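Morning!

As promised:
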Amino acid sequence: MTANGMATRLGGGRFRAEGMALGALFGLVGLLGVAYGARSWFPELASRHGAGIDVMLNYLLISTGGLFLVGHLVLAVFIWQGTHRAQVSRRAASSRAERRLSVALGMLMALIAEGGVLAIGIPVWGEYFMATPPDDAVVIEVTGTQFMWHARYPGADGQFGRLRPELIDSASNPLGLDRDDRRSADDVVWTGEIYAPADRTILIRLRSSDVIHSLFVPSLRVKQDVVPGMTPEVMFVPTREGRYEIACTELCGMGHYRMQGFFHVVSDADFDRWLREREA
Amino acid sequence: MTMHEPHGFLRRYVFSTDHKVIGIQYILTGLVMGLFGAALAVLIRLQLGWPTVPKTLLGEWLPNGMPGGIMTPEFYLAVVTMHGSIMVFFFISYVLVSGFGNYLVPLQIGAKDMAFPFLNMLSYWIALLSAVVMLLSFLVEGGAAAAGWTAYPPLSAVPSAVPGSAAGQSVWLLSMALFIASFTMSGLNIVATVFSLRAPGMSMMRLPLTVWSYFIASILGVLAFPPLTAAAIMLLFDRHLGTSFFLPAGLVFGDIVLPHQGGSPLLWQHLFWFLGHPEVYVLILPALGIAADILPVFTRKPPFGYRGSVYALIAVGALSMIVWGHHMFVSGMSPFTGEYFSLATLLITIPMAIYGVNMLGSVWGGAIRLRSPMVWALGVIALFGSGGFGGIYLGNATADMQLHDTYFVVGHFHLMIGGVTLFGMFAGIYYWFPKMFGRCMHEGLGKAHFWATFIPFFMVFFAQHFQGLQGMPRRYYAFETYEFLREAAAQNGLISILALTLIAGQLIFLGNFLWSLVRGRVASEDPWQANTLEWTVPSPPPHGNFAMPPTVSRWPYDYSVDGVAEDYVPQTVTAAEVAVTV
């Protein structure tokens, strides 16, 4: 077979049917992908900064969804056209023109998808992480251990008592609370559930005494790794009363999948009553 | 200088210093490891799809991990850890990076072999050893490592934290140290080869994008991987010699206080991701390079914006070294650092978007020959233009707060370093198989393989993004107790069916590969009518590659040049015969 014969045999036009099928595949990927995604996916929302996170995510879903759709349709059209052509069509005027076009389109895509990150994302990040806690913030210490969550409240004195790892007894004293420290006397330790009042700033101080865990409360849009040796803090304002699930989102061992807890957002009065009952 | 062809089967095909043999050894080793990785994926999807249904047959084969056909949580974690480790380090790295890198770089730059052939052989044998060590970890007491492929301490440091952290984690770390040693050797070799062994006339701006992508990826590997060797050894010290690099004071397991003090678990994360993030580019750049080189051959026109793509590869390589912290937004590191990493990550999307536009532009206006390598290369564009967007969510600290460690991440990296790489790898195999083995692969089966792979692949990992938006955490053995995950968990059955279909579809490839080795149509020197240097030598190329050192007169993309009878002009055609276009 001569090279020319080969060229004819391989040339454009022979792949029309396949080109249409492949174009249809990629076009459908774009269309059906957007159709699949176009609904609300997030867990119910119950915190103030969480609204900002949702705006951020929705912005991304719409902007990248649009780019995804356009990109796939363009690819589909190019394939459909290309398989119907026997010879290449004219290229852009010069390699410099090509470069300008791709840089312009690349920058445009980045700007569309990421303008929102700068405009929407950074302020939310600041609100969540860098604000100074108000004086009336409710401070809760949350400790992750394999595979449970423990909440501790400072009690009436507003001070947390000393913890000593050698006192830890997983059955009776999971945090290793030192009862000889008088600040410990009124500390409330509660396992599996966290109670917090609605519409007040909650400051959670996180601890772990074994491996890394991660406190994830989907409805509050809160996630923070709990690293032994560190006490990272998160601050947020729950806005709706209710019982929200807690999950662990850092692999912590065999029971990682069942390290479930509940975050109860209750009214101020209910919170005070609950705390007094525990102190007693 | 003449090269003496070695005699004897062992010297020629086993302990060979020929880059082509070593490349094929890497590819075959990687494909076998890929089968192991896929088998582990089957176990994962069976558990997630039907957690309560006993898999009796598997229970008989794996009485420890799946007693009575129900998987134990610790075995699930070991399987997930090993699936990730094998696919990232022993499948994609071996086939796509080391395998094709070895095979193609000397051929495409017109060299007889790599710069350091013995080092090359050494790197393969150490790579094989590290793969075997990794697989053996299933057999040690406590089973294979179970702390995830990221192996965060203290979970990976303390034997009583999880069964896999008994002996399995040490074996894993040993395997990783060997892998990195081998990968560094092989990377150095590629960098040195591209610098010093290019044929006369092969300037850097005449290199095919494939070579550029391997060049950049290898530089990244050499710069970014050694810190993890150090980290792996430090973690071994923490585990066995009582040091406290990663372990702080006050750790308590089973009510016993460990004697460690002063270490930081976050230090490991920084060292791991200092390797880990460049690593994803090490994997993905070759796939993007291969796709960008296959497109011109089958559109019969030069790639769109070649220079822009080269600059984009360089920019991505440079930026990839300074964005690792975007894996750690909620790790407890300073939120100011989080903002920095967020902004740096925004920057890296710009060259990636330019590269993507260039790939799309390369299809524009072509006279498309829809042969099997082309179909796979188009698949690379589609997956890159899907998964790439997920990176914008995750590189953004604010959105990442909700999405970190959920299935959104799983879906994202499977589309990118699972999918773009897989499709690039298959594009490469269908394209260079005739050169490697002297026979063509079956076209119809190649396309059937594409359809059977693309559709379920896309659906599985696209859907996982939306499971992540619902808050579904990754590395979970089961989801039943969570009310907020009721809908997401219900999607797992369908996803599992699709994933199993996807894996079954790979049998088409296996059959085609084996059949074509023996029965495939005999390939000519240049079956695709392509321009790069490997197509100017016989298929398969002889020892030493080129009978005469080639002289390069042009870039590799002179397709459909006006006034030339043939629609392609190989790089060795002199300027006197056909005028140089670029």
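Chain B has a mean pLDDT of 95.

Hope this helps with the figure draft.
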